[in-house]
Known about the structure:
2 copies of one chain form a homodimer.
Chain A: E1 2-6, H1 11-22, E2 27-31, H2 39-44, E3 52-55, E4 60-63, H3 65-75, H4 86-122, H5 128-151, H6 162-176, H7 186-196, H8 202-205
Parallel strand pairs in A: 1-2
Antiparallel strand pairs in A: 1-3, 3-4
Amino acid sequence: MWQLHQFPLCPFSRKVRLQLAEKAVAYDLVRENPWEGRDELWQINPAGRTPVLRDSARGSVLADSRAICEYFEETIERTPLIAGTALQRAETRRLVALFDENLYRDVTEPVMHEKLMKRLILRQPPDGQTLRRAGKLLHGHLDYIDWLVDTRQWLAGPTLSLADLACAAHLSVIDYLGAMDWSGHEQAKGWYMVMKSRPSFRPLLGEKMDGLPAAREYATLDL
Amino acid sequence: MWQLHQFPLCPFSRKVRLQLAEKAVAYDLVRENPWEGRDELWQINPAGRTPVLRDSARGSVLADSRAICEYFEETIERTPLIAGTALQRAETRRLVALFDENLYRDVTEPVMHEKLMKRLILRQPPDGQTLRRAGKLLHGHLDYIDWLVDTRQWLAGPTLSLADLACAAHLSVIDYLGAMDWSGHEQAKGWYMVMKSRPSFRPLLGEKMDGLPAAREYATLDL
């Protein structure tokens, strides 16, 4: 059985959890706190980051969320999430990178720093200017998601893909931390409601972070 | 014919160029300067980054260096660079991520900022403390590369892989900018010499950046 070393509000761990649920792969959760930098985590992943998947019985270790997702795409046929022609598969991977790199750097990471790290670890108030800047950049990303939803059935094309899971994973963290603002983004909001209502999403909606309750509408299925 | 929108010292563009050369895929170069933020670059890649590959005749666009590399792995059989079992392929992808994310953040990016951006654009002297910190972190990465070279034939396993190309791409940028220090890293140095002597590497060694000559030993094949 796989053990997923993860952190409840790590967007990359969430993407992997969504994929494993869509593909009906069983796993146990092992909690990591990124700020602790546990030796064991560094030993199994020299990048020192979540998520890491480990199968102790077989001695297998998978690290890096995109490498993990490609592994399960290759080994589990159920619910293909990087599908279609080579160009369509490239489009899915381009969007995963856009969300995991740009959306993360612009919004998820600063929001996590201001609203999670500062509250739980640094014991400092959040910086309003940083949060306002992240909120402005979030609108730019939501504009692009609106456009994708307007022109395609799912974000990367005609079928549900890893791009939908990656995007929803980031937005769910931003939403948990009370930094989501859907105003003017009906299409993105509609798409996110569909994602939220999938059975694969349910465990994430039940997730609780000690000392940091979720924003009011985080787990509701009807905004 | 593909057009590669790239920047001569962009490590991600270099990784793609190495892969295309190994696979004998023809392409033209289109020069981008990341600090200019050209509208055309943003139009073809909403992430606003190099590399982007475009085939105007067929209307195809590929963006994100990992998505580009996966595309050519899927479509060009020659010289497989993500090869072997699913676990071996995951190991190649894990290392590509380690170099493209950790080595980039720790070393390539700060070195590029201090020695390229400050010299050509910001017209400021480099910050010695930032460069010393990057140099220290470089030794940690070279230690890990030494260990990989000691235990495997190539970085990810028994055959040349995308992990070798990604790592060599970063080290070549660090080397061009005069921030390489091989002392105490004979294994990593030996492996890099082998990479440098591959025909796919030759165009990169001939590369010149206006106003920023390469470090003395950048293009020599015998350190």
